[in-house]
Structures are given as structure tokens and as C-alpha cells.
Amino acid sequence: MKNAAVGFRVHSGWSAMVAVCLEKGAPQVLHRERIHLVEEFTYRLRQPYHTAEKLPLVEAREFIRNAEAVAKTMAGRSIRKLQTQLKQSDYGLNRAAVLLASGKPLPELEKILASHAMIHTADGELFREALTRASVRCGLQVVSVKEKEVMGEAAQTLGLLEAAVSKRVAEIGKELGAPWSQDEKLAALAAWLALAGIAGAVRPRQTVKLA
Hints:
Elements lengths: L1 E10 L2 E10 L2 E11 L6 H4 L1 H6 L3 H32 L2 E10 L8 H5 L2 H22 L3 E6 L3 H9 L3 H11 L9 H14 L16
Parallel strand pairs: 1-4, 4-5
Antiparallel strand pairs: 1-2, 2-3
């Protein structure tokens, strides 16, 4: 069974998900999809910390806990479905890569809700954390890399110029047709790095302290 990896570029409430394998050292896209991490694609659920900001603290904690649980469940469902699909084509999905924003740990809930900038950050981190934990639960080795550093990491790891990496990633999506947006490109690049054995965080990062 051939190895495959999946890359995620996360947004509030959804993520680009691209699975990649290597054929003679070159990346090939096996699957691409936009997955939802909320039950209903509404602002209230897609921006959980913005919603929690308007709630009493006790209710805010419960709302965030529920958003985390739902996101992790839906992420796990999508990953397991992808594993099954790839297995039918003799590919074993055993690695995942999650692109990070700043990667800095967040403070306790009260401090997050007191800062509009942190609220924006926390919304994204909730869904990244859900995908990370779901990937681990599905038996995947998880690596993570900051999005702003991914091109440089790729060039160094793969022994290519950044321009060559960018061109290669753009080309592998041509035969798939649209959409092959920046979301798909970066998710594919992250998966490629995971297959190349880039070092990263293997365990889930610390979650926000709700208590």
C-alpha cells in the first residue's frame, strides 16, 4: 500500500482538505475537498468566540466546548471517509499536515473574550485544533507548520528554489481543473511536506483553558 498525506488550510467553520501521494518523488493530488466543521454554516457557529463574547461567561464556556466537540466530530468523519476512499485505491493515509497562523498559545477564555484581536485568532485556532485532534484519533501522524513559513520550509526540505516549489504546486492542480485556489495549493504543499518527513508537532497543541 502506498503512503498518502492530507493537508489542511483552515478557515472559520471550514477547511480545504487535499490528499497527496508521491510518484517518483513528485507530488500527485489524490483528493481535494472543502469540508465543513460546523453543523450549520451560519455566522453564529462559524465564529464561535465572537458568539461567546456576547454570552455570560458560564454560557460562553459551554458554547465553546460544544463548538469544539462538534468540530472534532465532523473533522473525524471527513478524515475517516477519506481514509476509506484512499484505501480502496491502495493508498494508506498515515500523515496529516495542519497549517498554522501565529502558532502562539492562547490565554484563558476570559482574556480572549476581552480582546477583539484574540477573538479572531481563537476562532481559527478552535478549528485547527479540532482537525489536529481528529487526525490523531484517526491514527495519523500530525505535523504542523506556520503558513507564512511553509514556502521557505518546502524549499529547504525539498532542495528546491521557492519559485520552483510554487510552480510545481500550481502545476499539479492543472489536470484537476478549477478550483485550484490558494487554499488548495497551500493544503497540497503542506501534505507534500508531511510526506517528505518534515519535523513538526506530532501531538495536539494545548487547547484554550475554559475553567
